[in-house]
Structure formats: structure tokens, C-alpha cells
Amino acid sequence: HGKPMVVSVSTESIYAVPAQVQDAEKTAAKMAAILALNQEKLTAKLKRRQAFTWIMRKVDVETVSKIKQLNLPGIGFTQEGKRNYLFDNLAAHVLGFTGIDSQGLDGVELSFDSYLKGRAGSVVIEYDARGHEIPYAHHRYVPPIEGNNIYLSIDLVLQQIIERELDRVIRETQAKAATIIAMDPRSGEILALANRPDYNPNKFAEYSPKVWRNIAVSNSYEPGSTFKIITTAAALKEKAVRLEDRFFDPGFAEVQGRNIRCWKHGGHGSQTFTEVVEHSCNVGFVNIGLRLGRDPFYNYIEAFGFGQPTNIDLSGEASGITIKRSAIKPINLATIAIGQSIAVTPIQLLTAVSAVANGGQLLRPQIVREVRDKENQILRTFHPDIKKQVIDTETATIVRGILERVIENGTGRNAFVENGHVAGKTGTAQKVEGGVYAQGKFIASFIGFAPASNPQIA
Q1: How many CB atoms lie within 10 A of CB 97?
Q2: Is 315 a catalytic residue?
Q3: What is the largest CA-CA distance in the chain?
Q4: What is the CA radius of gyration of the chain?
Q5: Paired residues of 362 in beta bridges
Q6: How many CB atoms lie within 10 A of CB 282?
Q7: Which of 11, 128, 225, 320 has a Cα at 20 to 30 A from 41?
């Protein structure tokens, strides 16, 4: 909406011309006290046989003023641009950060660095063979070109809401980490994205590089029951199941000599397919996965974008993990159907479920809406990027209806909003550490969209 989140501000940097410094020790002593630098190292720097050396870059106004008052020979000042993240930690994993030379190092700062950085100016001067400037020669001036403005798809109010909720969930559950992504399923635009732990891009170097990691796009996890949305869509599209088909759940299903248990002790008994989804019944979904079969099921897993990056314009995106199709056994089909034996990223799952929400179109998630120059002329606009039609609108409508019932009657009741018509699915997966399931460690998740009949947010 045109509200600035990151701007460049002018700041001063301090440099030295060692040949012009009259007393290196005294100069170093006076500057080190103000700049909190090591005096010996600074003295050595001022004694170097070189034309120019940086003392400190991008220094605050008050400190620069104190150094200027000393009036030290050989010490100079120059203007440089510095990035100012106006909301500190807000949307840190979207925005990223820049290095000392204002080069993009992460997030949108990195992905769109070529648009943001502009081009340096220059002066071309002619010299003779001995390196002397030729008098009255033609000097050519190449003016600098200012960088462009990037307009994000982020909605600042939504961003503030999800960050508030992330803080609350970490406080209440003591979770190690948490992520929320909000997307417009009609366009693929990311409306908000945040993770905890987070950092302040203004002081990124003070944080561990682990905290810079954008887990919304870089971390793969077993989705658990949220993946049953994909199983449901595939089974209905392939006519492997009808809504009125009945399943019996005694509490477990045996596949290739292995028992897969339902989360409800003693099972759900006899129920229709709609009730299987409402109650998130593992046994029912195991049977559906086996009915679908390897190739049809895998065709949908690939079509929905699993096992490959979404190509969102953020660095470090993971592809997720899928078992090689040729290696699939019945036990794998059974566990994948309930969201195990497959690893996804949060952005992958959201993109896939958004295809169910919007009537079957898989869209590339996008974080930037447009690029404008300093005259406010549009240089580039990002339109919805449709990858493929994964399921037909009729199937999508049926799945949306079932997912609304999950919220009204089933496992997703916590997401119920009066007159809100929310559709969604919960998921709980055991955490995998060192190739085995870690006891007592879980990844809890929820994915949903609203309003169910005409979704505007997922």
C-alpha cells in the first residue's frame, strides 16, 4: 500500500590518507577514545604505506561531529548510503539485510539487488603514457543512476498481526520455533510471512546466522494430517472414493506386516468418507492411499508441487523430500496418505492448498507486486503466475465443503469463527532427529482458508 518499510539514509564514514597524517600515535589515541577502537591497531593502520584506508564506516552523527571537532590532518569524511529498517524486526525474513557496501545479502534485498542498487557514476579522464593528466583534454562524466523502489505484496497490518500471534504462541507453548504465512490464493501474493526466532536487520551481525534462516521456505518437515487435503483431492479427482463410501476403523490398519495406528484409541468405527476427513482418521486415509495406487497418487503429489521448489523470490528455498517413485511400496503409499514419509516446506504446502482454495490452479507464490523508478514509472509488474490446473473446479468445491465441516464438526474446531466460514485442517507430526522419530517432540500445524466458498486468504 505504499507504506515505506526500508529506506536508504545518508550517513558519514571516516577515512584516512596516511601520507597526510602528521602524528600517527596522537591521532590514533584521540580517535580510538571516541570510536572505541583498539589504539595500537589504529596506529598501525595510520602508518601504512597506502593512499587511502577506512577508519570506520556509517558512523552516527554525534560521533562524526566529535571527530570533526578534533580537526586532525589526514582524516577525512565522506557521505554513504545506509539501509534503515523502519520497523526493526518486523518482516525481517522477507526484507533480509545488506552488507557494509549496501549489497543485498538476504531476503528481498538479495533477490532484487539489481533493481535496488542503481549504478555508480564515474568521471573519465585522459592521461599520457607517463600517467600525467592531459591538460584541456575532454573529460567525460557518467552520472550515477539511482536505484528503484520495490513494492511488496506484504500487507503491513496483517504482518503486524501474525508477528503478534507468533510472539504469543512462543510465550504460551515454549516452542523452539514457529512460522505463519498468509497468502492470497487467487493471485499467489504473500500477504504476510514471519518466523520465530527472528532478528533486527539493522543489527543483523549481532545475531547468530541460524536466526537469519527463513524457515518458512528453507525448512522441510513431515506435515502429518494437513497433507490429507492433498490425498482427499487426488482420491476424489481420480474417483477412487465417493463421499458416501463407508470405512471401518478398528483403531489400526495392517500394511505389509506393520500396524499403522489411528490417533483415536479403539478407532472411529464405521464412518463415511466425509467423516473420515472430519475426524482425520488415519485408517480411512491409509485405505484411500492404497486405493489410489502408486502412479496416480504420485502424479498428484508432483502436480501439486511437492519435491520441487515453488520458485518464490526468496533465497535458500528447499525442495522438500519425496521417496523416488520407483522405490515406492504399499507401506509408503499408506504413510504418505497420512502425511508421513514425505517432507514439505511451509510455503510448498500453503501453495498446494491454495490451489484447492482457488478452484484448482497452482500458482507461483510472489512477494513483490511491482518495481518503480524514482519518477514513479512502473518498470516491472508481477501478474499471477499460473503453473498448471491441478484439479477441476468441481473437485475443488467438494474438498472446500468437506474442509469447512472439519472446522465446524471435526478436529479443527479451534479455528471456528462465527459466520466466518473457515475451511482447514490440523496436523501433528513427530519430529525426526537423526533419522528416527524423537520421543515427545512434535511439529503442530494448521492450514486453512476463508471464506470457504470464495477464499481470499489462506
Answers
A1: 23
A2: no
A3: 97
A4: 29
A5: 388
A6: 29
A7: 11
**Which H or E run includes 59?**
strand 53-59
Please tell me which residue in 225, 280, 354, 445 is annotated as part of the active site: 225
Per-residue pLDDT of the chain (458 residues; tens, 9 = 90+): 889 999 988 888 999 988 888 898 999 999 999 999 999 999 999 988 888 899 999 998 899 999 999 999 999 998 888 899 999 999 999 999 999 888 999 999 999 999 998 887 777 878 788 777 778 777 777 887 889 999 999 999 999 999 999 999 999 999 999 999 999 999 999 999 999 999 999 999 999 999 999 999 999 999 999 999 999 999 999 999 999 999 999 999 999 999 999 888 888 999 999 999 999 999 999 999 999 999 999 999 999 999 999 999 999 999 999 999 999 999 999 999 999 999 999 999 999 999 999 999 999 999 999 999 989 999 999 999 999 999 999 999 999 999 999 999 888 889 998 888 999 999 998 888 887 888 889 999 999 999 999 999 99
How far apart CA 299 and CA 309 sit, in angstroms, is: 17
In angstroms, rounded to a whole number, what is the distance separating the alpha carbons of residues 330 and 383? 41
Beta-sheet pairing, 246-249 with 269-272: antiparallel
Distance separating alpha carbons of residues 145 and 126, to the nearest angstrom: 23
Q: Could you say which DSSP state residue 132 is in?
A: P
Give the three cell numbers for residue 113.
Answer: 539487488
